[in-house]
Design goal:
mainly alpha; about 90 residues; about 75% helix; about 0% strand
Length: about 90
Amino acid sequence: MKDLAFVQDMIETMTFTIAASPFYKALRAKLFGSVPTDFAKDKEELFIHLYNSWCLNPISTIILCLLSQKYELAYNLLFKFTEELDSKKLI
């Protein structure tokens, strides 16, 4: 389980860095779809590749969805997360 915790922390760190750092403006533009990507055929493929890893951390998943303009997915995930928390009586 230590490896999973490390991966979750690393994803969270990377997410906040990508979202806030001016050095990652180009990556944000690729996720947004305003700049073509050279390592994926389109923004959808880039999103899917990142989502497969990012989904290990709920907050990072929401941020990735918002950066990629996947607003409906972000809404649905938030709804599911709150349902899960509510079922465990955490909220």
